[in-house]
Amino acid sequence: MSTEVLAIIISAVGVVVTLGTSMFVGAAWMVRRIDAVAADVTDLKISVARLEGPPRHLLTTGRG
């Protein structure tokens, strides 16, 4: 193998590794963002359910 061919192969491997790593990091970042948004949506749903739920009953000392 000549030096030029070896340099091209090493460069190609470097490009593939770089692109693969960047895609993996990008996907991990998106998963973290989706999890954060899902947690916020869950908190929002709980808050809305509390607002729309049955009214709270006042405590009384006796019946009647």
Explain how this protein is built:
With 64 residues, this protein is mainly α. It has a domain at 16-50. Helices cover 78% and strands 0% of the residues. The chain is built from 1 helix and no strands. The chain has one helix at 3-52. The mean pLDDT is 87.
Essential attributes:
mainly alpha; 1 helix; 64 residues
Structural class: mainly alpha
Radius of gyration: 29 Å
Largest sheet features: none
Secondary-structure element string: H
What distance separates the N and C termini?
A: 99 Å
Number of strands: 0
Question: What fraction, in percent, of the residue positions are helical?
Answer: over 70%
Chain-wise SSE layout:
Elements: H1 3-52
How would you briefly describe this protein structure?
The chain is mostly helical and 64 residues long. The chain has 1 helix and no strands.
